[in-house]
Amino acid sequence: MINKLIENIKKTNAPIVVGLDPMLGYIPEYITRQAFAEFGETPEGAAEAVWQFNKAIVDATYDLIPAVKPQIAMYEQFGIPGLQAFVRTVDYCKSKGLVVIGDVKRGDIGSTSAAYATAHLGRIQIGQSTFTPFGEDFATVNPYLGTDGIKPFLDVCKEEKKGIFILVKTSNPSSGEFQDRLVDGRPLYELVGEKVAEWAESCMGDTYSCVGAVVGATYPEMGKVLRKVLPKSYILVPGYGAQGGKAADLVHYFNEDGLGAIVNSSRGIIAAWKQEKYAAFGAEHFAAASRQAVVDMIADISGALAAR
Amino acid sequence: MINKLIENIKKTNAPIVVGLDPMLGYIPEYITRQAFAEFGETPEGAAEAVWQFNKAIVDATYDLIPAVKPQIAMYEQFGIPGLQAFVRTVDYCKSKGLVVIGDVKRGDIGSTSAAYATAHLGRIQIGQSTFTPFGEDFATVNPYLGTDGIKPFLDVCKEEKKGIFILVKTSNPSSGEFQDRLVDGRPLYELVGEKVAEWAESCMGDTYSCVGAVVGATYPEMGKVLRKVLPKSYILVPGYGAQGGKAADLVHYFNEDGLGAIVNSSRGIIAAWKQEKYAAFGAEHFAAASRQAVVDMIADISGALAAR
Predict the structure, then answer these.
(1) Between chains, do B178 and A192 touch, taking CB under 8 Å as contact?
(2) Residues 6+ apart with CB under 8 A from B214
(3) Better pLDDT: B195 or B257
(4) pLDDT, tens only, A158-169
(5) Taking CB atoms and an 8 Å limit, are A107 and B23 in contact across chains?
(6) B229 closest CA partner among B205, B262, B197
(7) Contact at 8 Å (CB) between B17 and B101?
(8) Strand partners, A264
(9) Crossing angle for the helix pair B188-201 and B147-160, nearest 10 degrees?
(10) For residue B221, what pLDDT is reported?
C-alpha cells in the first residue's frame, strides 16, 4: 500500500492528504437540514449529513489528491450510525482510487492489538468466510505499549499489504510533556523514532517502508532530526495550516527524492468555505471552496519544495 | 462514578473486574452454531454469538462483582455488528447495576479527544436532542500526547460524573521499551504517574479521584512505587492470572483502607470452562464455570489482602 501511496503522490504531484474530520459546525446548514428532514435530529440524521458532506468534498477533490485521512473519533461520537458513515466514507474514497489513512490511534497488546489490526487493516474469518471490518489502507498507531503493541499490526501489514503510521512527535502544544523528556541525553521521541526505524526495516515496500511516522508540522526542528532517524519511513505531518505549521518549515520532512512526507490538512480544506479567503464561494459551493483550498495548499507546498 | 465503583466494591467485597473480551474461540460451539443458524456465518452471526456469550456470563456473575471491562477491540474486529454487540453489552451490564469500564485506550488531542470523550463517556447534542453514543462509565486513555489529550476527558468526567483510567505501566513484556526509560534518573512511568496524580487532584469524588491509573499486575515492584505516587487514584490492574500476576504480589496496589485497586481478569473468567480446573462444568455450563472462577478469584485476592 505504501507503493500505491507513492504512486498516487507522483501521479497527482501532491504530497498532501485531506483530513475528513467532519464536525457538524463545518457542514452547511442546507445539508444538515435535509438530512434531519429525512432521518430526524438523531445520530442517523447527523451521520447522513456527515456522509453527504464528505461525498461532496471527495467528488470535488479526488482527482487532485493521493489520499484522505478520516479521523474516526469524529464518527465515533455519533455512535453506530457515525461509524456506518465512516465505513461508507472509506469505501467511497477507495472506489475513487484514493488511499485511505484511518486516523484511529489505536494501540494495545497481543491479541487485542491483533484485533485492532484486523478491524482496521485486515480481514476476519467467520466460519468459512472472510469479511473486511473497516478496510482502511493505513492506520495510525500509538507506541506507548512498545513492540507488543506494534508487532500484530506489522503482521497484518505484511499479510494484507497495508501500512501504519506510528505516533512519534505529535503536533499539539503539550506533546513535549512526555515525548521531549530526555533519556540518556536524547528526547524520548528520538528513541521512539529509532524503534520505528527498526520496525520499518522489517516491512519494506519497493523504496519506502509500510511503517511510517507521525511528526507534527509545528515542530520543524524535530522533524529535521527525525527525517534522518527514519530514512525509509514516510512521515505523516499533521498541524499544517490551522494548527500553525507553515510550508517553508516542512521541506525538511521530505527526502532528497522529493518523497518521504505527506502533509495533512483537515479543517483548512473541509471547512474552507467558512474562511474569509474562500467566503465568496458561499455555503452552497463549499465543495468548490475545498477544491480551491487543495489547489492552494499544493501550490504552497510545491513552491516551498521547489525553493529549497 | 468513582463513588459508585467504590460502593459496588464494598457491597460485593470483591475488588475485581471481569474483562468481557470475547474471542470466538472462547464461545462454546453450540452458541456459535445457533447464532450462525439465525444470522449466517457473518459478522452479524459472530456478534450475536458474542452477545449471547456475554449475557450468560453477566447473568451468572453480576451479583458477585462490582464491574466489567469490555475490551472494544474484540468487538471492533467484527465491524459495525460487533460494535452493536458492544453497545448491547454495555447497556445490559448497566441495567444489572454493574459499573462498565470501556477498555478503549483512546487518546488524541483537542477536539478529537473531546469527540472520543463524548463517544464513550458523554452525550452528543444533535439539534434540540441529546444522545448517548456508547455510554460506558469509565474509559481507559493513553497518555502519550500529554495534557491536550487528557483535558477533554476530564471536562466530560466532571460534567457527566464519569471516570478514566490512564495507562501508566502496562502489563506486557515490552512495556519497558519506553515506559521504563530513565528521565532524570527516574523511569518515565513514574513521571506519567505524577502527571496522573496532578490530573486526579482536579477531579475528586468523595474519597478517590475520577482519574485512575492502569498498572500491570506483572510489575509488582513498580505497582508499589506507583501506589505512593498516586494516593488518590484507583489502580486498574490487568495481568492477573493468565498473564502471570499473582494475588500475593497485588496487595501493594491497595491502600491501607483496603481500597484503591481493582484487579481485572478476562480469559481466566470468561474462558474458565476451557481450563482443566473447571473442565467438569462442560461447555454447556460455561457460565457456571465463570461464576466459580469469580468465586475463586475473590477468595484468592481477599486471602492475600487478609494475610498482609
Answers:
(1) yes
(2) B140, B165, B166, B167, B168, B169, B170, B235, B236, B237, B238
(3) B195
(4) 999 999 999 999
(5) no
(6) B197
(7) yes
(8) A17
(9) 30
(10) 95
**Residue B137 half-sphere exposure, CB side, CA atoms within 13 Å?**
24
Out of A94, A105, A161, A195, the active site residue is A105
DSSP 8-state symbol, A304:
H
Contact at CB, B115 and A76, closer than 8 angstroms: yes
Tell me: pLDDT of B299 over 90: yes
- Mean pLDDT, chain A, whole residue set: 97
What share of chain A has pLDDT > 70, as a percent? 100
3-state secondary structure of B110: helix
Does residue A31 carry a pLDDT above 80?
yes
Rounded Cα–Cα distance for residues B18 and B41 (Å): 28
pLDDT digits (tens, 9 = 90+) for A172-201: 999 999 999 999 999 999 999 999 999 999
Distance from CA of B155 to the nearest CA of A (A): 16
Active site residues of B: 105
- Is the alpha carbon torsion for A87, A91, A93, A99 positive or negative? positive
The answer, yes or no, to whether residue B71 has pLDDT greater than 80, is yes
C-beta atoms of A124 and B43 within 8 A: yes
Chain B residues with CB inside 8 Å of A108's CB?
A: 71, 73, 105
CA distance A282 to chain B (A): 23
**Chain B CB contacts of A195 below 8 Å:** 177-178
Q: Coil, strand, or helix at residue B40?
A: coil
Between β-strands A129-131 and A124-126, what pairing exists: parallel, antiparallel or unpaired? antiparallel
What is the arithmetic mean of pLDDT over A9-38?
A: 97
From B306's Cα to the closest Cα of chain A, the distance in A is 32
Shortest distance between the Cα of A179 and any Cα of chain B, in A, equals: 7
B145's grid cell: 500526547
List chain B residues with CB under 8 Å of A71: 108, 112, 115
Closest CA to B71 of B10, B136, B133, B132: B136
Contacts of residue B110 in chain A, CB cutoff 8 Å? 172
Residues of A within 8 A of B238 (CB-CB) are none
Q: Tell me the per-residue pLDDT of B91-121, one tens digit each, with 9 for 90 and over.
A: 999 999 999 999 999 999 999 999 999 999 9
Q: Count the Cβ atoms, other than its own, within 10 Å of residue A279.
A: 12
Nearest to B65 by CA among B304, B222, B262: B262
What is the rounded average pLDDT of the residues B6-21? 98
How far apart are alpha carbons B297 and B282 in whole angstroms? 20
Nearest to A177 by CA among B34, B148, B210: B148
- Its pTM stands at 0.97
CB within 8 Å: A179 and B146: yes
How big, in percent rounded to 5, are the helix, strand and coil portions of chain B?
55, 15, 30
Which residue, A129, A122, A80, is CA-closest to B80?
A80
What is the predicted ipTM? 0.97
Q: Which domains does chain B have, with CATH numbers?
A: 2-302 (3.20.20.70)
B143:A178 CB<8 A: yes
Kindly state the DSSP code that residue B136 receives in the 8-state scheme.
Answer: -
Do A15 and A262 contact (CB within 8 A), yes or no?
A: yes
Q: Per the CB < 8 Å rule, is B112 touching A73?
A: yes
Question: Which of B71, B78, B133 lies closest to A124 in CB terms?
Answer: B78
Q: What is the dihedral of CA B3, B7, B10, B16, to 10 degrees?
A: -70
